[in-house]
Amino acid sequence: MKESIAQQHILCEDWKRELKFFKDDIAVLRKRLEEVAAKNTAQSVMAEVEHFENKFKILDVHIDELLHDIQIKSDELSSQAATQAKYINVKMNEADVLLEDLMLTNSKDFLETKNSYYKFLSKVL
Known about the structure:
- The chain is mainly alpha-helical.
- It contains 3 helices and 2 strands; from the N terminus they run βααβα.
- Strands 1-2 form a two-stranded antiparallel ribbon.
- The protein is elongated and about 65 Å long.
- The N and C termini lie far apart (48 Å).
- The model has no long low-confidence stretch (mean pLDDT 90).
């Protein structure tokens, strides 16, 4: 699918905002996890705590990598727009399907993790 440079740039900015929201949300989830770990010392609970700590680390790494890739794409679009300023809304580029798929996968993984985390919290609190 082809999109204009301006459309692709707006999409990149939306993705960056979404990923930054996820990072902020992970920080809140981690804080709550620390509270659970401090109050519960049962081995089964601690195993779940460790599982979510690891999952949050993995999500954080994936988010950082995606932010980096999206920033590269955004920089490419900016340089392309600078060389073809009058065509910014007309020039059509191939959409970056790989980044789009990575964003969808990452968002789905984040939401599934958050849902299972809330189920865990409802059991232990």
